[in-house]
User: What shape does this take?
Amino acid sequence: MSDIPAILSVQSHMQLPRNDELIDTMPCPSTTAMSIERTRGEIARIVNGEDDRLLVVVGPCSIHDPDAALDYAQRLSEIKAQFENTLCLVMRTYFEKPRTTVGWKGFIYDPKLDGSADMRTGLIKSRDLLLNINALGLGTATEFLCPLNALYIADLISWGAIGARTTESQTHRELASALPCPIGFKNSTDGNIQIAMNAIKAAQSEQIFCTTIRNGKFEAVQSTGNQNCHLILRGGRQPNYYSADIEQSVVLLKSVSLTTNIMVDCSHGNSQKIHSNQVVVAGSLCEQISSGQQNISAVMLESYLEAGSQKISSTGNMVYGQSVTDSCIGWDDTCQTLDMLSEAVVRRRNLSTTSHTLPIELSRSAV
Assistant: This one.
């Protein structure tokens, strides 16, 4: 341990590849890079109200088995085309998990699920999975938790989240201000949306912070600010997906000149952590959308091949395609929910068209 300065109290350490080394070793092909850029643009237009489709970020609570995750991605990519006129589908690929106390911190930290903390393998396999999913033409989403880990994968991410526990963090606001993809900020775990609004304001602004870009050297950088940030309602002590919650959020967002296009997380506080309730939440959102609610522009679903969740097993005897963190809805419920959301967008679009037809015709007649 003599090679580590006596600044930190550590019991072990592992040499990791520099972020630029890993990116150079596992580069993003030009066709994939163009696909990612296109998806980011589509998402930005949706969250800024320039596209009336619904952004749907859907996938497992966390990645723990790359094979099952790629299986899910292939299924999602196969049905993506049938929804392309109503839904923008992006897959959840969460490699880090914030813990209230302790627990499995995610695939990047412990890819072998055995406490061995082989972060080198975790970073490599995470990037490999993202390359494979993006190669399908399917955009990926993640929660940015550790700012240094973000440097290994951010070029492959189409949409990112700053979670309820980190939205108030200055470090994460600085990171979001420099990220190349649209970012959603969740309300705090107690349901406070003011914190998320403050975070959006901060992330839209230029920020000076310390990071490493190439050669492993740390630099002071000034970000450009990220104009594609938005609010995520994830519930708190009680759900906040009801029409009154949406309307109140819109009023508050307008008061500080922020985008009023909102994502609703159907899981977490809104589902009361009961995975099957996600379908109920989505149903309520569909009713609101069908009635003409324009401010619901995005939805998040925790979904996997198999419903429910399981404990990590030391014997390796685990259910294929089932979450090891929060419980998820299964594939069949996922498909039905996507159908429901798509139909709601069509109804909203038809309402909007009908409401504008007469004034437009009268205007033309006047001319």
